[in-house]
Amino acid sequence: MDFVLPPGRSPGLCYLKNPTPSSQSHWLTAEERNQVLLDLKASGWSELGERDAIYKEFNFKNFNQAFGFMTRVALQAEKMNHHPEWFNVYSKVQITLISHDCGGLTKRDVKLAQFIDKAAASV
Fold it and tell me: Angle CA(32)–CA(37)–CA(38) in degrees, nearest 5?
């Protein structure tokens, strides 16, 4: 897929040169993006400066809790066909969310981030 920034559109939003209906349904409008980023930042997510993605670090009591959390997230990610970039060392899990097929942040990332926060709170 080719990525292009149409005239009058903001950088950091997802635009495909030849979008498919499924990719279009995942785009965030500028208003949606501003609101969801406020909500996500309030729950500890941060925007990555070098790419259009969000990041959060989770700390658990031990490796077993961290791995259990990752398993829950993995099962949901598989259902959504939307997989996080993540890194785990003992009780720490670092997660980056980006829609690679879109080249940036989309509704899928927001939905998965919300699930991840609920999963972390239930551990």
Answer: 105
